[in-house]
Structure formats: structure tokens, C-alpha cells
Amino acid sequence: MSRNIIAILRGIRPDEAKAVCAALIEAGINRIEVPLNSPEPLKSIATMAEAFSKDAMIGAGTVLTTDDVADVASAGGTMIVSPNANTDVIAATKTAGLFSYPGIMTPTECFAALGAGADGLKLFPSSLIGTDGLRAFRAVLPTGTETYAVGGVGPENFADWFAAGVTGFGIGTGLYKPGFSVDEVATRATRIVAAYDVARP
Predict the structure, then answer these.
(1) Is residue 43 flagged as an active site residue?
(2) Which positions carry the signal peptide feature in this UniProt record (predicted)?
(3) Is 33 marked active-site?
């Protein structure tokens, strides 16, 4: 069963990427993002894509330029996540045949991103937008628009976000911080997946 959870592995190193990715997939999380401000992020993406491209969607976060998109595609990534709604980046992502999840915070950004071809919208930071903000967005967004809450979300509020109509979540430090062992990541992933399954409508 595929869950709409994106694991955000900010700070991960290439030497640990494969083992951490394997642990996440085993726990039930098969969407993996390596932010580009991590150490040698393209190497980590390439390592994970080579090993798990058939089992998971591997990609990059904090993607800010069209050159970044090309680099991620060359590394074997298939997902582009950004903190902002840069329509040039979104268009380049779709031209490259990748999935696009730009960050938004206003209805104007939502519609600009969708108009440029975004596959889904990253509510960032979702702690500021809140569930009431998402409800307001959903009243005007096209039916079926995918929304991902990122920033301040976790097992304690999954149910509240689902009730507001969210599609899924991006989870960063709740899953991974530099220095976490593979076992700790696996334990956290298992707990998050269990909470997601309980909360999902």
C-alpha cells in the first residue's frame, strides 16, 4: 500500500543513503526527498535511485533553479519539491518528465503552480497555514488537487489535517536528523506509518 508520506532527509550523507532508504521502504514509506542543501545530495539521490527506483519515488527537495532540475533528472531522481512556487522550475520539471511539488502559501501561488503543471501543492509552512487555511484553499481549488502539509505535522495532528482535506504529508525531523541510526529511522517510520493508517479516512 502506497502512503502519501514524503520522507524529507535533510542532511543525509551518501554513505548512509541506501540503508536509510531501505528502512523507510520496509516501514511503508516509498516517497523519499533529499534536500539539495544536504552533503553531496545528487550522489545520495543517485545511490537510492539506482537501488530502489522500482520500489520508491526518489527525488530532491529545496530545488530552486531549472539547472537543479536538470541535475536531479541526471542523477535518476523523479520528484522535484521546492519551498516556493517558481513557475520556471515547475515547467522545467514537467518538461523533464518528473513529478512537481512546489511550495505554496497563498491561493495566488496555488493557481500559478497548478497553471504551470504542478502535480501537487506543498503547504509550507503548514503550521502557519493551518487546517482552516487548507479548508479555505480547498473551497476554490480544482477537485482532486493534491495537497501536502509540510512543517509542524506529525502523528499528533494527522487526523486534523485529514479532516481538513489534506492529501498527505512531508515529514522531516520527525523521521530523520543527521546522526540518527538506521534503526532509529526505522522505528520512527514504523510509528508514523501506523499513525497515518489509523488517521487516514
Answers:
(1) no
(2) none
(3) yes
Structural domain boundaries in the chain: 5-199
Classify domain 5-199 at the CATH class level: alpha beta
Mean pLDDT of the chain: 97
Q: Give the pLDDT mean for 21-49.
A: 98
Cα 177 to Cα 198: distance, rounded to the nearest angstrom: 25
Instruction: Report the distance separating Cα 74 and Cα 170, nearest Å.
Output: 24
Q: Of residues 16, 18, 26, 33, which has the active-site annotation? A: 33
- Active-site residue (options: 43, 54, 122, 146): 122
